[in-house]
């Protein structure tokens, strides 16, 4: 496991998110009230870019395509894809799958993500 500096703390205000590359992995870093978290960059449903999603209810990322929601702290699926009506037919093939999460630490004002 290697730590990679992705940004400065001031680069992501509380309640915001931003996509980065850490080593060979694309990640999204979230700044929540209780700190920084990181997940894989694409939704596990049909691989939509989560950096274009939105944070809701403080700690949930909502996919911009089909509104799947995940807890960014754990990667847990909270709501599987449900929009537009009929997308549930695809869900038979694309079963629920949690997001991969990464360890994050802050050192000297920099946000670092562990990958590998």
Task: Report what the structure shows.
It contains one helix and eleven strands. With 116 residues, it is mainly β. The protein has a single domain (2-115), classed as 3-layer Sandwich (Rieske Iron-sulfur Protein), CATH 2.102.10. The strands form three sheets. Strands 2-3-4-9 form a four-stranded antiparallel β-sheet, with no helix packed on it. The protein has a four-stranded antiparallel β-sheet with strand order 5-6-7-8, with no helix packed on it. The longest helix has 4 residues, at 88-91. The chain is elongated and about 50 Å long. The mean pLDDT is 92.
Protein traits:
about 120 residues, Rieske Iron-sulfur Protein, 4-stranded antiparallel sheet, elongated, 11 strands
Spell out the blueprint of helices and strands:
Layout: E1 2-8, E2 16-22, E3 25-32, E4 35-40, E5 54-56, E6 60-62, E7 69-71, E8 77-79, H1 88-91, E9 101-102, E10 104-107, E11 110-115
Antiparallel strand pairs: 1-11, 2-3, 3-4, 4-9, 5-6, 6-7, 7-8, 10-11
Tell me the count of domains: 1
Highest CATH level, the class:
Mainly Beta
The string of secondary-structure elements, in order, is: EEEEEEEEHEEE
- Bin the helical content: under 10%
Distance between the termini: 5 Å
Largest pleated sheet: 4 strands, antiparallel
Mean pLDDT: 92
How would you summarize this macromolecular structure in one to three sentences?
The protein is mainly beta. It is built from one helix and eleven strands; from the N terminus they run E-E-E-E-E-E-E-E-H-E-E-E. The chain is 3% helix and 45% strand.
């Amino acid at each position: 496991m290697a730590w990679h500096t992705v940004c400065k703390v001031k680069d992501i205000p509380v309640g915001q998110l931003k996509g980065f590359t850490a080593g060979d992995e694309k990640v999204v870093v979230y700044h929540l009230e209780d700190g920084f978290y990181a997940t894989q960059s694409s939704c596990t449903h049909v691989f939509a870019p989560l950096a274009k999603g939105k944070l809701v209810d403080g700690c949930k990322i909502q996919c911009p395509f089909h509104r799947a929601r995940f807890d960014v702290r754990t990667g847990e699926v909270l709501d599987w894809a449900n929009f537009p009506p009929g997308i549930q037919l695809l869900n038979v093939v694309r079963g629920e799958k949690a997001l991969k999460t990464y360890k994050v630490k802050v050192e000297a004002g920099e946000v670092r993500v562990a990958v590998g």
